[in-house]
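quick one, 464 residues, struct below
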Amino acid sequence: MSELHSDALVFFGATGDLAYKKIFPSLQGMVKRGHLNVPVIGVAKSGWNLEQLKARVRDSLEKHGGVDSAAFEKLCGLLRYVDGDYQDPATFEALRKELGGAERPAHYLAIPPLLFEAVVEQLTKSGCSKNGRVIIEKPFGHHLESARQLNQILLSSFAEDNIFRIDHYLGKRPVNNLMVFRFANTFVESFWNRNYIESVQITMAEDFGVQGRGGFYDKTGAIRDVIQNHLFQVLSNLAMESPARLDSESIRDEKVKVLKAIRTLTEKDLVRGQFRGYRNETGVAKDSQMETFAAVKLEINSWRWRGVPFYIRAGKNLPVTCTEIVGRFRKPPTLISAESLKENHLRLRLNPDVTIAMGMMVMTSGEDVAAEETEMVASRYPQAGAIDAYERVLGSAMEGDVTMFAREDYVEEAWRIVDGVLKAGTPIYEYEPKTWGPIEAERLKPAGGWSNPSIEEAEVAAAA
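---
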């Protein structure tokens, strides 16, 4: 273990839903790969003891990925537990004792944002924050002002390079592969710019509803839940310039430049939708005006992209679960019949499989000089045993590598873009479940229409 590696992981919210579904399986994976061998101290107010926490961990693993006997036993040997109120100094005195000789703890706040200030304050007063790191979950605030307030709270006790804002989407290998695809292949640079690309679409579709999380979702919505964070990160990877160096700050500098080049969205740039039946979900207001679908049009005012519209769609209860990018090329000035001519395209699928496809025109089977569309496809299904996104980002945080984490200025720029339309109270349009959102989204459609991910292709990939 390097001298920069955290020597303890303090896990606030250890008895919560996120821990149960995501974090415990990731911790077992880290142990199994030899990436975790420091104390893991769970903190919660549940009236539990250590044995109850271990039982919770086993139950979590049985339902989410399976128990690896050797790794589970080692993880149990690393586990500690502190039960107490987050605003009670005695809780943090107990934590300080459990930390023992640890000098560089990482504090993971898997708790509601309204508790952040109290926890950070108590960590500071108890001395637990000294030389430590803090890891927090998205959303980073609820709007621009709250994001700034949250950053002030965090920066009062931790330096920026010791603050790790988790967007687990950045831990997904296919998302990181976007930069490799762009900057490790000579041919991509020749066309990935305003001279050849007519428009870019990013679609994140989910074929399920809110899955019992109505209380959370009705305070969040599609824009805050995935567009302002997940899909802006995808956009940044697609649109950024090659960094001068591969260090974390050089990469993050280029991502911030992309957001700075995007003007604040207006009402004409957005269509919001809500699937029929959403208001009947537990925890959802009967007159809810929260969107479960959003379509956004924006432009990046940079040398590479000026004049090229970017379209982002995200929604629940759509026909398929899939995240896909489609870049449409400008049509060539050919003499071949324009009636049958379709734009070439580059299609990048991030899940459920990883696909790179190039759409092109070829000669039809008839004798006439006519063209038809086809795709050249390279596809790879998810690899068994691949490192989970949470495992990747938690491991990076404990190593002190900030590359995959959002910086303060990035977070504030992302909120700046959407803040005005979030406050504007734009109309909400109803759509039928398993459709591609409200018909009003056609108002924003790209030239050539929306590119809807193939249901059949996604189903094959999901079953593989």
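The chain has a mean pLDDT of 92.
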